[in-house]
């Protein structure tokens, strides 16, 4: 084994654990928190857009239009670097959570809204014929069915969010990708380190994809009963 190969192997072994720790300690929590908050925002936004409150529905449409029409990187820069100019300073982690939450909320609301619309009108009418209010029908009949329709696209959004969290490095939050940048600055082996970073992202996304398939199969069996 050449000296160069031995050095690369040593760097790989020494850097893999810190990178994996950064992924598990920062990237995963950032993803879970942002997606949970974003999903709640998405449900609220979708319901507002489907409501009869025109002013609120218009406001929700405006929010979705702004978020979907601008890059996520620009949104993060506005939150972290732009807001301090008007006296609002947000630390790196909450700034990243806010940015990712707003993004998930906007895109997720379109998925949930489409899922609700896809439920046949007869389901609403059947609920009304049983004396249920619109809210009760929505909670007991419509949303459970819409959730099963929305699971695959929402799962894909979650997996995409895992990769998008690398953008948090641009606002100085030390997650997996930024940790890779820091290690690269000390060992001067960018190809090796960034390939390691890509490998860990790949492992995380593969695990999540497997969980997504299990979740979809579970609901397929549930529907078949």
What would your notes on this structure say?
With 225 residues, this protein is an all-alpha fold. It is built from 8 helices and no strands. The protein has helices at 3-49, 54-68, 72-82, 92-118, 121-129, 134-164, 176-187, 190-224.
**How many runs of DSSP E, i.e. beta strands?**
0
Count of alpha/pi helices:
8
Question: How do the SSEs run, as a string of H and E?
Answer: HHHHHHHH
Largest sheet entry? none
- Rounded radius of gyration (Å): 22 Å
Mean pLDDT: 92
Strand content: under 5%
Shape: flat
- Separation of the first and last Cα atoms: 60 Å
Provide the structure class. mainly alpha
- Helix fraction by DSSP (H/I, runs of at least 4): over 70%
Extract low-pLDDT stretches.
none
Provide a brief overview of the structure.
This protein has 225 residues and is an all-alpha fold. Helices cover 83% and strands 0% of the residues.
Keywords:
flat, about 0% strand, about 220 residues, mainly alpha
Secondary-structure topology with pairs:
Elements: H1 3-49, H2 54-68, H3 72-82, H4 92-118, H5 121-129, H6 134-164, H7 176-187, H8 190-224
